[in-house]
Amino acid sequence: MQICKDRIDFVKSPYLAPPRSAVTAVLCLFFLGFPSLSLPPSVSAQSDAEMNDPRVSKLYGEAKAAQARGDLAGAAANYESLLQVAPRLGAAYNNLGALYLRQREYKKAAEVLEKGLKIDPKMSSASALLGISRYEMGDYVGARHSLEAALRTNPKDYNAELFLANDLIKLGELNPAADHLRQLSQRQPANQEIWYLLGKVHMKLSEQALSKLNEIDPNSVWVHQISGEIMESMKNYDGALIEYKKAVEMAPQRSGTHYLLGNAYWSLNMWDAATEQFKAELSNDPANCLAQWKIGNIVLEQRGNPEGALAEVEKALTICPNLMQARVDRARALMKLDRHAEALKDLEMAEKSDPAEPSTHFLLAQTYRALGRTQEAQAEMKLFSKLEESARAATAERAKQLLQEKSKEQP
C-alpha cells in the first residue's frame, strides 16, 4: 500500500462494509487512491507548511508501520499525535476515522471525520466513512445525508452505494433502495448479495401491496389472485387452487382468472381441468396466447392427435409469433407427423433464443438424425448431455447449500 511519494501525500484510508451487519457478514476492505491533498485555498499554505514538518513524516511512518503489523490502536495514537502537529491535514482525519471504524469505535470515527470534512468538504471517502459510522450507530437519517454526499462526489463508489441502499431499507424508502440496487446489479451482475437484497426489497414491496389490498377489501378478487400467486410461487398448489377458485367464482368474466386456475391445474398435470379453464379464459380473452398454447401442449402431453395439437399451437403463434415454448411444441407435433424439415426451423429459433435449454438440443438431435444429418445429431446430443449434467450438478449444489443453511439455523 503506497501512501507517500516524494513528500507526505496521505491517501484515503480503507473503509469497511459493516461486520455482522445488515449488509454482509464479511469484513470488506477498500483502498482508494489519494495522490495529493486537496484543500481550500485559505488553508493550503498552512497545510503545505504542516506537511513539510519532519514530525509529520515521522509520525506518519510510525502509523503506517503500526497498521502494517496489525496494531490499529497504535496507528490511531500516531495519527492523533500527528493531528496535534498538523491540524489542517484533512486526509489524516480520514485515515484516523477509518482506523476508529475498523475498531468499531463509531462515535469517535464520526467525530473525527466531521472535523476532517470541515477542512476538506470534497473528501468523498471521508463522507462515505462518516455515513458508514452513522449507519452503525443507528443514525440512518444522518447516514443517508453523508452517503449521498459521497456518491455525488464519486458516483462509482460501490461500497457507499451498497450502504446507502441498506440505509434506505432501514428508513423504509424501498423504491429508492431498489433503484440503487438495480444500478449496482448492472455494474456487478454476478454479485449475489446485491440480488439477494433486491429480492428482499421487492418482497417487502409486495407485502405492502398485499397489505393495502387487504386493507381495502380482504375478500376481493385481487386479494385471492395475488394470494394464489404467492402460494404457487412456493409450490403450494393446493392452496393456490383454493384461492384461484374463489377468484373465478367472484369474477368469472374477468380476464386472467380462469388462466391462473388453469395454469395451476396444468402444473399438477391435471390435464382435463386445465383444458376446461384455458378454454374459459379464451372466451374472456381470445388474445391470451399462453392459454391457447397450453391447450395444444396438453394434447401432446396426453399423446393425443398431433394434427389437433398442431392446430392449437399454430393459433397461439398467430397471436404471439415469438412465443418460443409454442414453437418447440409445434416442432414436437411436426416431428410426430414426420415433417422434420419444418420442425427444424422452429427448433433452431428456440435454440437461438435459449441455448442453455437442454430439451431443445435433445429434440434437435432427434430431428437431425431423422434428416440423415448424423454429425450434427451427435453434436447436439453431446450438448444435451453436458447441459443436463451441469443442471444436475447445480441442483445438487443448491440442495447442499440449503441443507447447510438449515443446519446452521438449528440450535
Mean pLDDT: 84
Terminal Cα span: 42 Å
CATH class of the domain at 12-124: Mainly Alpha
Tell me the series of helices and strands, N- to C-terminal.
EEHHHHHHHHHHHHHHHHHHHH
CATH architecture descriptor text of the domain at 12-124? Alpha Horseshoe
Content of β-strand: under 5%
Helix content percent band: over 70%
Could you tell me the radius of gyration in angstroms? 31 Å
Low-confidence stretches: 1-46
Tally of contiguous helical segments: 20
CATH topology of the domain at 12-124: Serine Threonine Protein Phosphatase 5, Tetratricopeptide repeat
Inertia-based shape: elongated
Q: For this structure, what is the CATH homologous superfamily of the domain at 12-124?
A: Tetratricopeptide repeat domain
Look at the helices and sheets and give the structural class. mainly alpha
Report the biggest beta sheet as strand number plus sense, adding barrel if it closes. Answer: 2 strands, antiparallel
SSE arrangement:
Layout: E1 12-17, E2 28-32, H1 41-51, H2 54-68, H3 72-85, H4 90-102, H5 106-119, H6 124-137, H7 140-153, H8 158-170, H9 174-187, H10 192-216, H11 221-233, H12 237-250, H13 257-267, H14 271-284, H15 289-301, H16 306-319, H17 324-336, H18 340-353, H19 358-370, H20 374-409
Antiparallel strand pairs: 1-2
Helix pairs in contact: 2-3, 3-4, 4-5, 4-6, 5-6, 6-7, 6-8, 7-8, 8-9, 9-10, 11-12, 12-13, 13-14, 14-15, 15-16, 15-17, 16-17, 17-18, 18-19, 19-20
